[in-house]
Amino acid sequence: MTATRTGGAAGARFRHLREFVVRIERGRDATAMRWQLGFAVIDILILAFFLFGPYLRSGPSYLVIDYLIAVWIGMELTARALAAPSWGVFFRRFMTWIDIVILATLLFPDVLFNFAFLRAMRLWAIGNSPLVLHGLRRIGYGHLLEVVRALINVLVFLFIATGFVYTSFFYNRSGEEGFVDALYFTVTTITTTGFGDITLPGTAGKLTSVVIMIVGISLFVRLAQAVVRPNKVRYPCPRCGLQRHDQDAVHCKACGEILRIPDEGD
Q: Do 64 and 45 have their domain in common?
Protein backbone atom coordinates (compact mmCIF):
# COMPACT_ATOMS: atom_id res chain seq x y z
CA MET A 1 0.00 0.00 0.00
CA THR A 2 2.82 2.39 0.93
CA ALA A 3 4.65 1.67 -2.32
CA THR A 4 1.45 2.32 -4.28
CA ARG A 5 0.90 5.65 -2.53
CA THR A 6 4.53 6.64 -3.12
CA GLY A 7 4.24 5.76 -6.81
CA GLY A 8 0.98 7.68 -7.07
CA ALA A 9 2.50 10.75 -5.43
CA ALA A 10 5.50 10.59 -7.75
CA GLY A 11 3.20 10.28 -10.76
CA ALA A 12 1.15 13.26 -9.60
CA ARG A 13 4.28 15.36 -9.15
CA PHE A 14 5.44 14.38 -12.62
CA ARG A 15 2.08 15.37 -14.12
CA HIS A 16 2.17 18.73 -12.33
CA LEU A 17 5.72 19.32 -13.57
CA ARG A 18 4.73 18.45 -17.13
CA GLU A 19 1.69 20.75 -16.97
CA PHE A 20 3.88 23.57 -15.67
CA VAL A 21 6.42 23.11 -18.47
CA VAL A 22 3.67 22.99 -21.11
CA ARG A 23 2.17 26.17 -19.68
CA ILE A 24 5.50 27.96 -19.82
CA GLU A 25 6.26 26.77 -23.34
CA ARG A 26 2.84 27.33 -24.95
CA GLY A 27 0.90 29.55 -22.55
CA ARG A 28 -0.43 33.00 -23.41
CA ASP A 29 -1.12 34.31 -19.90
CA ALA A 30 1.02 36.92 -18.15
CA THR A 31 2.97 34.36 -16.10
CA ALA A 32 3.86 32.30 -19.17
CA MET A 33 4.88 35.43 -21.05
CA ARG A 34 7.23 36.45 -18.21
CA TRP A 35 8.87 33.01 -18.25
CA GLN A 36 9.21 33.12 -22.04
CA LEU A 37 10.72 36.60 -21.83
CA GLY A 38 13.26 35.34 -19.29
CA PHE A 39 14.21 32.44 -21.55
CA ALA A 40 14.50 34.81 -24.52
CA VAL A 41 16.90 37.04 -22.56
CA ILE A 42 19.03 34.01 -21.72
CA ASP A 43 19.03 32.97 -25.39
CA ILE A 44 20.23 36.44 -26.39
CA LEU A 45 23.00 36.24 -23.77
CA ILE A 46 24.01 32.86 -25.21
CA LEU A 47 24.16 34.45 -28.66
CA ALA A 48 26.29 37.27 -27.21
CA PHE A 49 28.67 34.66 -25.80
CA PHE A 50 28.91 33.16 -29.28
CA LEU A 51 29.67 36.58 -30.80
CA PHE A 52 32.33 37.42 -28.22
CA GLY A 53 33.70 33.87 -28.12
CA PRO A 54 36.67 34.68 -30.39
CA TYR A 55 37.78 37.31 -27.86
CA LEU A 56 37.25 35.08 -24.81
CA ARG A 57 38.47 31.68 -25.96
CA SER A 58 42.05 32.25 -24.76
CA GLY A 59 40.94 33.11 -21.21
CA PRO A 60 40.17 30.64 -18.39
CA SER A 61 36.58 31.87 -18.04
CA TYR A 62 35.66 30.69 -21.54
CA LEU A 63 35.29 27.01 -20.67
CA VAL A 64 33.48 27.81 -17.42
CA ILE A 65 30.81 29.84 -19.22
CA ASP A 66 30.76 27.28 -22.03
CA TYR A 67 29.90 24.39 -19.70
CA LEU A 68 27.37 26.45 -17.74
CA ILE A 69 25.53 27.14 -21.00
CA ALA A 70 25.74 23.43 -21.81
CA VAL A 71 24.03 22.61 -18.49
CA TRP A 72 21.31 25.16 -19.21
CA ILE A 73 20.63 23.84 -22.73
CA GLY A 74 20.59 20.28 -21.38
CA MET A 75 17.95 21.33 -18.84
CA GLU A 76 15.92 23.04 -21.59
CA LEU A 77 16.03 19.91 -23.74
CA THR A 78 14.88 17.82 -20.80
CA ALA A 79 12.00 20.22 -20.10
CA ARG A 80 10.90 20.23 -23.74
CA ALA A 81 11.02 16.43 -23.78
CA LEU A 82 8.70 16.40 -20.74
CA ALA A 83 6.30 18.84 -22.42
CA ALA A 84 6.20 16.96 -25.74
CA PRO A 85 3.20 14.67 -26.36
CA SER A 86 5.57 11.84 -27.26
CA TRP A 87 9.22 11.09 -27.96
CA GLY A 88 8.43 10.94 -31.66
CA VAL A 89 7.03 14.48 -31.67
CA PHE A 90 10.00 15.70 -29.65
CA PHE A 91 12.59 14.27 -32.04
CA ARG A 92 10.71 15.46 -35.13
CA ARG A 93 11.10 19.07 -34.08
CA PHE A 94 13.76 20.97 -36.00
CA MET A 95 15.00 22.92 -32.96
CA THR A 96 15.47 19.70 -30.97
CA TRP A 97 18.26 18.59 -33.28
CA ILE A 98 19.71 22.10 -33.47
CA ASP A 99 19.89 22.22 -29.66
CA ILE A 100 21.45 18.74 -29.56
CA VAL A 101 24.17 19.88 -31.97
CA ILE A 102 24.64 23.10 -29.96
CA LEU A 103 24.95 21.05 -26.76
CA ALA A 104 27.58 18.86 -28.42
CA THR A 105 29.60 21.91 -29.52
CA LEU A 106 29.51 23.23 -25.94
CA LEU A 107 30.58 19.92 -24.42
CA PHE A 108 33.38 19.38 -26.96
CA PRO A 109 34.42 22.92 -28.04
CA ASP A 110 37.86 21.90 -29.29
CA VAL A 111 36.51 19.17 -31.57
CA LEU A 112 33.18 20.56 -32.80
CA PHE A 113 33.98 24.28 -33.01
CA ASN A 114 33.02 24.26 -36.72
CA PHE A 115 29.35 23.86 -35.73
CA ALA A 116 29.30 26.59 -33.07
CA PHE A 117 27.69 29.02 -35.52
CA LEU A 118 24.41 27.07 -35.18
CA ARG A 119 23.90 28.76 -31.80
CA ALA A 120 22.48 31.72 -33.75
CA MET A 121 19.42 29.56 -34.49
CA ARG A 122 18.23 30.24 -30.96
CA LEU A 123 17.44 33.80 -32.11
CA TRP A 124 15.32 32.31 -34.90
CA ALA A 125 13.43 30.28 -32.31
CA ILE A 126 12.66 33.48 -30.38
CA GLY A 127 11.30 35.11 -33.53
CA ASN A 128 8.91 32.23 -34.11
CA SER A 129 7.75 31.99 -30.51
CA PRO A 130 4.42 33.34 -29.20
CA LEU A 131 6.41 35.89 -27.20
CA VAL A 132 7.14 38.09 -30.23
CA LEU A 133 3.55 38.02 -31.51
CA HIS A 134 1.92 38.80 -28.17
CA GLY A 135 4.64 41.26 -27.20
CA LEU A 136 4.07 43.29 -30.38
CA ARG A 137 0.30 43.15 -29.90
CA ARG A 138 0.63 44.33 -26.32
CA ILE A 139 2.48 47.49 -27.36
CA GLY A 140 0.21 48.08 -30.35
CA TYR A 141 2.54 46.96 -33.14
CA GLY A 142 1.14 43.54 -33.97
CA HIS A 143 0.89 44.52 -37.63
CA LEU A 144 4.70 44.59 -37.77
CA LEU A 145 5.06 40.88 -36.98
CA GLU A 146 6.08 39.90 -40.51
CA VAL A 147 8.62 42.73 -40.68
CA VAL A 148 10.15 41.77 -37.33
CA ARG A 149 10.37 38.09 -38.28
CA ALA A 150 11.89 38.92 -41.67
CA LEU A 151 14.47 41.13 -39.94
CA ILE A 152 15.27 38.37 -37.44
CA ASN A 153 15.75 35.92 -40.34
CA VAL A 154 18.27 38.30 -41.91
CA LEU A 155 20.15 38.69 -38.62
CA VAL A 156 20.16 34.93 -38.00
CA PHE A 157 21.58 34.23 -41.43
CA LEU A 158 24.17 36.99 -40.94
CA PHE A 159 25.32 35.42 -37.66
CA ILE A 160 25.30 31.88 -39.07
CA ALA A 161 27.17 32.85 -42.22
CA THR A 162 29.71 34.86 -40.23
CA GLY A 163 30.23 31.97 -37.81
CA PHE A 164 30.68 29.47 -40.63
CA VAL A 165 33.12 31.69 -42.51
CA TYR A 166 35.07 32.37 -39.31
CA THR A 167 35.38 28.76 -38.19
CA SER A 168 36.08 27.45 -41.70
CA PHE A 169 38.46 30.09 -43.04
CA PHE A 170 39.67 32.52 -40.34
CA TYR A 171 39.74 30.46 -37.14
CA ASN A 172 43.55 30.34 -36.95
CA ARG A 173 43.85 34.12 -36.91
CA SER A 174 43.70 36.13 -33.70
CA GLY A 175 40.21 36.51 -32.26
CA GLU A 176 39.62 40.14 -33.20
CA GLU A 177 41.19 40.05 -36.64
CA GLY A 178 39.65 36.74 -37.73
CA PHE A 179 36.10 37.41 -36.55
CA VAL A 180 35.99 40.98 -37.88
CA ASP A 181 37.29 39.79 -41.27
CA ALA A 182 34.60 37.08 -41.36
CA LEU A 183 31.88 39.60 -40.46
CA TYR A 184 33.18 42.12 -42.99
CA PHE A 185 33.30 39.51 -45.76
CA THR A 186 29.79 38.26 -44.95
CA VAL A 187 28.22 41.73 -44.95
CA THR A 188 29.88 42.76 -48.21
CA THR A 189 28.84 39.47 -49.83
CA ILE A 190 25.23 39.55 -48.61
CA THR A 191 24.82 43.13 -49.78
CA THR A 192 26.61 42.25 -53.08
CA THR A 193 28.99 45.19 -52.49
CA GLY A 194 31.97 42.93 -53.15
CA PHE A 195 34.98 45.17 -52.55
CA GLY A 196 37.26 42.18 -53.16
CA ASP A 197 39.83 43.09 -50.51
CA ILE A 198 38.90 39.93 -48.54
CA THR A 199 38.08 36.73 -50.43
CA LEU A 200 37.74 33.08 -49.51
CA PRO A 201 40.35 30.78 -51.01
CA GLY A 202 39.75 27.74 -53.19
CA THR A 203 36.65 26.12 -54.63
CA ALA A 204 35.03 25.80 -51.20
CA GLY A 205 35.44 29.55 -50.68
CA LYS A 206 33.82 30.36 -54.03
CA LEU A 207 30.87 28.04 -53.37
CA THR A 208 30.44 29.54 -49.90
CA SER A 209 30.34 33.02 -51.43
CA VAL A 210 27.73 31.94 -53.97
CA VAL A 211 25.46 30.47 -51.28
CA ILE A 212 25.79 33.56 -49.07
CA MET A 213 24.91 35.85 -51.97
CA ILE A 214 21.89 33.87 -53.12
CA VAL A 215 20.40 33.30 -49.66
CA GLY A 216 21.27 36.80 -48.47
CA ILE A 217 19.59 38.49 -51.44
CA SER A 218 16.50 36.30 -51.01
CA LEU A 219 16.19 37.28 -47.34
CA PHE A 220 16.65 40.97 -48.12
CA VAL A 221 13.94 40.77 -50.80
CA ARG A 222 11.66 39.05 -48.27
CA LEU A 223 12.35 41.84 -45.77
CA ALA A 224 11.63 44.51 -48.38
CA GLN A 225 8.34 42.83 -49.29
CA ALA A 226 7.30 42.70 -45.63
CA VAL A 227 8.05 46.43 -45.26
CA VAL A 228 6.32 47.78 -48.38
CA ARG A 229 3.30 45.52 -48.84
CA PRO A 230 -0.04 46.39 -47.17
CA ASN A 231 -0.36 45.36 -43.56
CA LYS A 232 -2.21 42.10 -43.00
CA VAL A 233 -3.37 40.30 -39.90
CA ARG A 234 -3.14 36.59 -39.22
CA TYR A 235 -6.56 35.13 -38.49
CA PRO A 236 -7.58 31.70 -39.85
CA CYS A 237 -10.88 31.74 -41.67
CA PRO A 238 -13.20 29.22 -39.94
CA ARG A 239 -14.44 27.92 -43.31
CA CYS A 240 -11.51 27.84 -45.77
CA GLY A 241 -8.56 28.40 -43.44
CA LEU A 242 -7.13 31.46 -45.23
CA GLN A 243 -4.62 32.98 -42.81
CA ARG A 244 -3.97 36.56 -43.94
CA HIS A 245 -6.65 39.25 -44.17
CA ASP A 246 -6.88 43.02 -44.32
CA GLN A 247 -6.95 44.62 -40.89
CA ASP A 248 -10.52 45.89 -41.37
CA ALA A 249 -11.80 42.82 -43.23
CA VAL A 250 -15.36 41.74 -42.46
CA HIS A 251 -15.61 38.90 -44.98
CA CYS A 252 -13.01 36.38 -46.16
CA LYS A 253 -11.87 37.20 -49.70
CA ALA A 254 -11.59 33.52 -50.57
CA CYS A 255 -14.97 32.16 -49.42
CA GLY A 256 -17.00 35.10 -48.14
CA GLU A 257 -17.25 33.80 -44.57
CA ILE A 258 -17.93 36.46 -41.93
CA LEU A 259 -14.80 37.16 -39.93
CA ARG A 260 -14.52 38.29 -36.34
CA ILE A 261 -10.94 39.53 -36.25
CA PRO A 262 -10.06 40.80 -32.74
CA ASP A 263 -8.60 44.25 -32.26
CA GLU A 264 -4.90 44.62 -31.39
CA GLY A 265 -5.74 45.26 -27.77
CA ASP A 266 -7.94 42.17 -27.37
A: yes
